Amino acid sequence: MKKRCHWVTEDALYIQYHDHEWGVPVKDEHTFFEFLVLECFQAGLNWLTILKKREHFRQAFDAFDYEKIAHYSEEKVSELMQNKGIIRHEGKIRAAINNAQKFIEIQSEFGSFSKFIWGFTEGEVVKNHWERGDEIPANTPLSDEISKALKKRGFKFVGSTTVYAFLQATGIVNDHISSCFCYSPE
């Protein structure tokens, strides 16, 4: 049996996510935006809750098309607030719209969101070496720095803990524990 990180339950969705997505370096703009939206909605909730609603989010938010989301109307906000398949939190829905607009601004300034976000680590994956899951912090100086930079640019729901989860999810930070089969010291 494969050993996995401490947070992975027997849920097949969690196992799939851990084994094939979490900690895998992302460069794709749409994938970055998808994780940004999902991590913002996850704030205060369990990640498995979000994973189970992921397909509903994908449908509700036009496959995470930030160009479309940036232009959502009040009518669309009302529609999303009625959608039982997603987390119906008006602040987070409005944050997704706002963050789509800010995402596009970063793309205009840096050429891509990928260049912007990877610039904080000079394009290198931060590989941590944790023996146990309880050693992994909720935030770090890197997530503090990125959170401040995103907030300064007008992003919402991007506190340091949310940003750290985003960095882990997109593989900018690799926090697989050393006993996990996904762990690699290099």
Automatic annotation (TrEMBL):
SUPFAM superfamilies the UniProt entry points to: DNA-glycosylase (SSF48150)
EC assignment: 3.2.2.20
Biological processes annotated in GO: base-excision repair
UniProt keyword annotations, A-Z: DNA damage, DNA repair, Glycosidase, Hydrolase, Metal-binding, Zinc
Catalytic activity entry: Hydrolysis of alkylated DNA, releasing 3-methyladenine
GO terms of molecular function: DNA-3-methyladenine glycosylase activity; metal ion binding
Gene3D superfamilies reported for this sequence: Hypothetical protein, domain 2
InterPro entries on file: Adenine_glyco (IPR005019), DNA-3mA_glycosylase (IPR052891), DNA_glycosylase (IPR011257), Tag (IPR004597)
Keyword Hydrolase attributed: yes
Residues the record lists as binding Zn(2+): C5, H18, H176, C180
Class of the enzyme per the UniProt entry, highest EC level: hydrolase
Coiled-coil boundaries: none
Entries under PANTHER family matching the protein: DNA-3-METHYLADENINE GLYCOSYLASE 1 (PTHR30037), DNA-3-METHYLADENINE GLYCOSYLASE I (PTHR30037:SF4)
Function: Hydrolysis of the deoxyribose N-glycosidic bond to excise 3-methyladenine from the damaged DNA polymer formed by alkylation lesions.
Name this protein carries in UniProt: DNA-3-methyladenine glycosylase I
Organism, as annotated: Candidatus Ornithobacterium hominis
Gene coding for it: tag
